[in-house]
## 1
Amino acid sequence: MLTEQQHQHFKTFGFVVLRQLFTRDELAVINREFDHGLESAYRHLPFDGTVRHWVTMMGKSTPFFASLLEDNRLCGVAEQLYGEDALGVAADANRYVGNTGWHPDTHSIHQYGIKFAFYLQPVGPETGALRVIPGSHRNPYHGELRKVMPELGLHVAEVPSHVCVSEPGDVVGFDLRLWHASYGGSSDRRMCTCVYYNNPRTPEETETTRSQGANNGKATAKYNRPGDPLVDPYWLANPEGSPKRQRWLDRLLELGFYQDATGDDS
Ligand SMILES: O=C(O)CCC(=O)C(=O)O
C-alpha cells in the first residue's frame, strides 16, 4: 500500500518510486526466470543487441513472474488507486535496445491504470533510467503534449523531465497516461513490468479499454513472434483457482482481451 504522501505524489505527478520492493533472493529468482523466459521465446532469433525482445511472463516455467500480478505489494497498490475491481493484465520482460522516445502507454485519457517497471541493472540519467514528464497524465497537459511533441522535434534528452534513477529491487509505478521515455541505455537494458487497468465504468472508458485490448493483440507480431499467444494458456487456465485472477479474466474476456491469442507491448 502507498502511504498518504506517496498516494498524493502519484495523483499529482503521475508516478511513484518504491525503493527496494524486491529482496535479494527475489532478484536472483527474477533474473533466472528473465533469462529463461526470453531465451525460450526467442530461440528463433537470439538476442544480438539490435532489436528489442519482449515477452509476457505468465507461464508455468516462470512461476515467480506468473504470480506477480497477484502479489499484494503490487495489486494492493493498484486496488488502492482504482478500487478493488482493478484488473491485472500482464507481467512481462524486455531487453531494450537504445533510447525510447516520448510516449504515453494508452491511446486515450479514458483508458488508464498503473504500470510497475523494474530494471535489473542500475540505471541513471545517461544510462537508460525512465524519464517522466510530471503531471502529464492529466488533461489539458496530456492532450497538449500529443499535439506539440511531434512538432517540437526535440531530442529525447532535451525534453524537460524527471529522471527516475533506479537500482535493482526498486520499482517505478506510473500512470499509463504519463508521458515517459529513456535515454542512453545499453543495447541490452533488462526491464520488467506489471500492468493493471482501471475496470472501465463509463461508456467512454469501456470503449477505449476494448480498443486498447484489440491493439494489444498486435504486439507478438510486432516483436517478431507472430502466432505466439499474448498470454500463456497456463495463466488463462488459472490452475490454482485464484478468485482474483478469475474475476480479472471474466472481465477482460468480456472486454475482448486475449481473444486473438496475440500480445501487449506498451
Ligand atoms: O525503459 C525504457 O526504455 C522505456 C520503458 C517504457 O517505455 C515502458 O515501459 O512503457
## 2
Amino acid sequence: MRGSKICRKTKETDIALRLDIDGSGQAEIETEVQFLRHMLDTLARYGGFDLELKATGDNDHHLIEDVAIALGTAFREALGDVPVERIASAMVPMDDALVTVSVDIIDRPYCEVDCPDVLYLHFFRSFAMSSGITLHGIVHRGLDEHHIIEATFKALGTALRRAVVPRESILSTKDAVSLRRE
Ligand SMILES: [Mn+2]
C-alpha cells in the first residue's frame, strides 16, 4: 500500500490526515464545511483512494487551503519513488457541466484550473503546489457552479487514479526524476 500520514497544526488550523493511494475509495471526513466534505469524498471515491481526515479551522479559507496543502503533501509522500504512468486526463460530464482535468505527476508544480469559486480555485492551486504536480482544468460548459466544481473534483480523482498506476520504468526523456525532496 502506498500511503502516508500527515498531522499539521498551526494557529489557524488543525489537520490529521491519512491517505492510501491504493485504496478502494473509502473516505471518513470530519470537518465543518459540508461542501468540502462532499468534494473530498468525491475525490477519494473517483481516485480510488482511502482518505481519513479530521480538520478544524478558524475560517473557511484557512481550512480549505490547509486541507489542500496537507492532502498534496500526503499525496507526494505516499507516491514515493515508485515510477507511475504520470500523465493522465479525464473528461467528466455532470448535468450541465462538462470538465476536463489533465495531470502530470512530476515535480513541476503548476495549476491552471477554470473554477467559478475562488476558495476551490485556491484548493486546486494549493494541492498542485504541495504535491508538485502539473494540474490543468478546463470547463467546456456549465451553468451551475456546484456542478462545475463537483465535475472538476470527479475529473481530478479520475485523472489521478489513472496517473498513479505503477509502471516498470520512469517515463521521461530525462533520467530519473524523483518526487522526493532530498
Ligand atoms: Mn490563502
